[in-house]
Amino acid sequence: MRVTKLRRTPSFAIPKMSKPRINGSRLGKNVHLARTLLGEIFWWFARWQKRRIFKRAAKSLDSRIPFTATEARLTCVFLVYSGFDRAESCPLRQTICRKRTYSILGFFLHGPLLGAAPTRNYAFHGVETSTFSSSPSALALIFLSSCLFPAEAVPRKLSALVKGPALTLKYQSGPLLKGVITVDLVWYGRFSASQRAIIVDFLLSFTGTSVSNPSVASWWSTTGAYGSGGTAVISLGSQVDDDNYSLGKSLKSADLVSLAGKTGPSGGVAVVLTSADVAVEGFCMSRCGTHGQRRPGSPFVWVGNSETQCPGQCAWPFRQPLYGPQTPPLVAPNGDVGADGMVINLAALLAGTATNPFGNGYFQGAKEAPQEAASACQGIFGAEAYPGYPGKLLVDGATGGSYNANGLSGRRYLLPAVWDPRTSRCSPLE
Length: 430
What we know:
This protein is an alpha/beta fold. It has ten helices and 17 strands.
């Protein structure tokens, strides 16, 4: 069969296509015969389609003739299969795969179905997500799926592929925190002046009604829909410094209760903040912070600085996680990954404390490990969020920091979505 050499356009050059090695690293040494056959079938079909698809692609890029749905899907699958996604400047990948929606393709590439380790970022829905070193049989499955399910009939969001049951936080008839909530701080360890200012300004922003929306105050107003009595008012109380590590640099859960008692009997919420060089029982393994009672009827909150211990877990999305989708990290809005991560966890725990202060308020699941107002919406910060993607956020033009809430003193913060009892949905700031 005669193959006509394609004309090189000013915008891009088509990379050469090399047949994958059957016994190389892509398949492994002990590959099943059926997988090999499927790979060969897909390979030869792709070669047969190569000339027509790329010729059409060249015309589309030059004259902006739109691809048909089938041609675009074949091109995206072909690019990944043939290794063209390794070329960061490949306009076919950037133009076609970024601007079109391939929910089925994105689902297979992004999930664990391929059974391989992540290799590089790839763009779906305008967001860099992780691809996986995949076998020809898996890509044959992708190809068949893309043919059986047209792109126009597939939902445009990855989160819409699987819809679970509606989220409901049940009210257990216990008391909630309403009225004025005084927040007393215990600084355990060494914090810089800028870190202190970030957190203090955040707490002062709860009453910053003059700040333009979306604001910290508007985010907090959702908690007013829990029960009756309106939205509680957060008031900053006393601050206690313990920069001499009076209990050492390795703390147990009981030590957190002792530190919370340093604020005295104010009747408010004691917030214990531990610095980056302090290890706490369960920190980075099962929790980034917690809330409970220092004594009956007196709630407390603890949040740790995870910058040097587990920023991918407790300061996401400002650092890449150890596991799961490896999306590029966002820029912290105040330029401090540790402090900005603490704000996210502090906000979530304050919302949980106000709506479930004593373990019999609003929550879902087991009482020992409840899903509360904000923890039930974990990983959601903006509209159209899905696992590995925090959602659509605002970006500071000067610093590049991502945020969704304005605060006092020109501060900007990234705050988690809160479950809204009026709509039974997680409601991020917009």
